[in-house]
Backbone:
């Protein structure tokens, strides 16, 4: 595949998996809350395309997109959502804790900001071992209100770690707009105050996000000291948690979303492709998704003996 085809495939796969999740979720077959990335797919697609299999990404509870774009096993992902033993966490993690170590998808967390230091720790270990693998921490704008965000940036800058901090800034922490929580909309500037190269991509463009990440990855591969910081401004189309829309709550309005909907990352990434090639990619992905959901539906639940395994005091 060309780069354009791969970016489109990432965005299309994420979008269609989550649209299928939206169909299945009301049937009560998915055993955990779901946080959808519909509208935000450009970030995971662009970032993960710039990474190698040996690199690692640490996400958030909105973890479907990063898991899928990093190459996580789709059968295992959907089985995990269904709470099945064949899931990537044996059915015990659910939607917010997807992990596939074989491809460097090292998991999300339901607790805001907790995977930021995980990424720095992974990067520190690799630096000590003399490896030029790259760690990526992805997080939302609400996470920068946690002390561990600043502590980790300070530590990463001090130790010159091979880590890329990617802010997925959709402007809201659940229902709270950014400027009701923070005095200035200047998160990238705050990262730069630690001496970290920081840039802002404000149009949610998949290709721009890929190129920014690829530059940082290449610099680390060539021996330049990290960390790096990339702020990606995007917009979620659905409610914070769940499959519905939330305009009725009044904390945001559809007019605000319209420019982002018009810049739909699926439409933008599809534009360079011929109609025949686009349909070919879509057909292949649709078959993959149908297989994953059929697999999850027929897979067994964990045995009751699993209840107390993987539990630590």
Residues:
């Amino acid at each position: 595949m060309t780069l354009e085809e791969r970016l489109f495939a990432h965005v299309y796969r994420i979008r269609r998996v989550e649209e299928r999740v939206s169909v299945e979720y009301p049937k009560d077959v998915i055993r955990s809350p779901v946080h959808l990335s519909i509208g935000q797919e450009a970030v995971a697609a662009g970032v993960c395309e710039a990474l190698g299999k040996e690199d690692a990404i640490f996400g958030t509870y909105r973890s479907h997109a990063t898991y899928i774009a990093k190459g996580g096993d789709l059968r295992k992902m959907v089985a995990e959502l269904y709470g099945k033993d064949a899931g990537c966490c044996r059915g015990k993690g659910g939607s917010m804790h997807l992990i596939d170590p074989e491809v460097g998808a090292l998991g999300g967390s339901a607790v805001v900001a907790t995977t930021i230091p995980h990424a720095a720790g992974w990067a520190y270990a690799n630096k000590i071992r003399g490896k030029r693998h790259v760690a990526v921490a992805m997080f939302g704008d609400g996470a920068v209100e946690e002390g561990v965000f600043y502590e980790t940036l300070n530590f990463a800058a001090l130790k010159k770690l091979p880590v890329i901090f990617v802010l997925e800034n959709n402007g809201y922490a659940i229902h709270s707009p950014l400027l009701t929580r923070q005095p200035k909309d200047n998160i990238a500037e705050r990262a730069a105050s630690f001496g970290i190269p920081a840039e802002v991509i404000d149009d949610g463009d998949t290709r721009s996000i890929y190129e920014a990440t690829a530059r940082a990855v290449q610099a680390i591969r060539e021996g330049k000291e990290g960390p790096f910081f990339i702020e990606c401004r995007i917009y979620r189309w659905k409610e914070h948690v769940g499959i519905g829309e939330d305009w009725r709550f009044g904390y945001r309005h559809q007019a605000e979303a319209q420019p982002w909907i018009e810049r739909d990352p699926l439409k933008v990434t599809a534009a360079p492709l011929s109609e025949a090639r686009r349909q070919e990619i879509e057909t292949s992905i649709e078959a993959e998704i149908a297989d994953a959901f059929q697999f999850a539906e027929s897979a067994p639940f964990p045995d009751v003996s699993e209840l107390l395994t993987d539990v630590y005091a």
User: Anything to note?
Assistant: The radius of gyration is 19 Å.
